[in-house]
Amino acid sequence: MKSLGEFIVEKQAEYPHARGNLSGILAAIRLAAKVINRDINRAGLVNEILGDAGAENVQGEQQKKLDVFAHKTISAAFFARDDVAGFASEEEENFIAFDSEKNRNAKYIVLTDPLDGSSNIDVNVSVGTIFSIYRRVTPVGTPVTLEDFLQPGSAQVAAGYVVYGSSTMLVYTTGNGVNGFTYDPAIGVFALSHENIRLPDDGTIYSVNEGQYLKFPLGVKKYIKYCQDDLPSEGRPLTSRYIGSLVSDFHRNLLKGGIYMYPQGSNYPNGKLRLLYECNPMAFLAEQAGGMATDGKRRILDIQPTKLHERSPFFVGSRKMVEKVHEFIEKNPD
């Protein structure tokens, strides 16, 4: 059994970014994931971490108590180290500049969705944590600015997620493939369980909130009908699977092959998912595993963000499936 820490040390020669400070950031994420995992697993027994927090986040969404807990846990894990100059969270309107001298000298900033799919937590459905790491672009030794956070996804040096499900897994990339580690609570270690994950070129699963079907663009509607066609000779109909937690849906499709879609709609003309906290890290993982991620027209990792909580349509998964939905979108412009 190879632990996450051992794996990082072993791969330092191959992963030019996975040295020193970046290894420390991954260690902080590992620690935060253990704490969040512990509290998620006893959420039904502890009232103070279950249910609504009584406030809305910057997107106008009702925060759960575990959203707030996860945000504070991750922020504290980064602040306790010298490796992070700044931190941005889906749960906060503005980024946080860690303004001590040690943090101003750090080279990296981190963006995170502390608890993706938190609306599922009260009914014991899988949720997750998403993270994205960049080198800062402002001079080391000065406080970070918004410029450090508004970088295209192609500038990521590492990204990943933790899925809290029937088992807890940490999946990440530093730009040299994707690897997964399963948490063994008996010894408190994330152990390598899925080495060099490859996303199948094609798949049989499509993941989309079909309850929003009438609000989708015409091309997406026609692609969904294509997936539902009863044509066994062509491998259809495909299987519809939608959990409502991006981490959980993405993780299943990453291992089995499939496509996840959250298009723009009449209720979300710019899409719903956040570019910096959700789309960019998942797109980085998908491409590193051999898949594809777009907004329906452009490669996600090429998009230049203009604001911290920018939204985007999102199509990610097996390359052939993403290319197929593109065909429908191009042929059926709204």
From TrEMBL:
Cofactor(s) essential for the protein: Mg(2+)
Transmembrane segments: none
Reaction catalysis annotation: beta-D-fructose 1,6-bisphosphate + H2O = beta-D-fructose 6-phosphate + phosphate
GO BP of this protein: fructose 1,6-bisphosphate metabolic process; fructose 6-phosphate metabolic process; fructose metabolic process; gluconeogenesis; sucrose biosynthetic process
Gene Ontology, cellular component aspect: cytosol
Pathway assigned to this chain's UniProt record: Carbohydrate biosynthesis; Calvin cycle
Residues engaged in binding substrate: D116, G117, S118, S119, N209, Y242, K272
EC number in record: 3.1.3.11
Positions annotated to bind Mg(2+) 1: E90, D113, L115
GO-annotated molecular function: fructose 1,6-bisphosphate 1-phosphatase activity; magnesium ion binding
Keywords: Carbohydrate metabolism, Cytoplasm, Hydrolase, Magnesium, Metal-binding
Compartment(s) of residence: Cytoplasm
Highest taxon in the source lineage: Bacteria
Fructose-1-6-bisphosphatase class 1 C-terminal domain boundaries: 199-328
Coiled coil residues, start to end: none
Main location: cytoplasm
CDD domains, sorted: FBPase (cd00354)
First-level EC class: hydrolase
Domain Fructose-1-6-bisphosphatase class I N-terminal: 3-195
Pfam family, one: FBPase
Subunit structure: Homotetramer.
HAMAP family documented for this protein: FBPase_class1
Protein family according to the UniProt entry: Belongs to the FBPase class 1 family.
Protein name: Fructose-1,6-bisphosphatase class 1
Organism listed in the record: Lautropia dentalis
Phylogenetic placement of the source organism: Bacteria, Pseudomonadati, Pseudomonadota, Betaproteobacteria, Burkholderiales
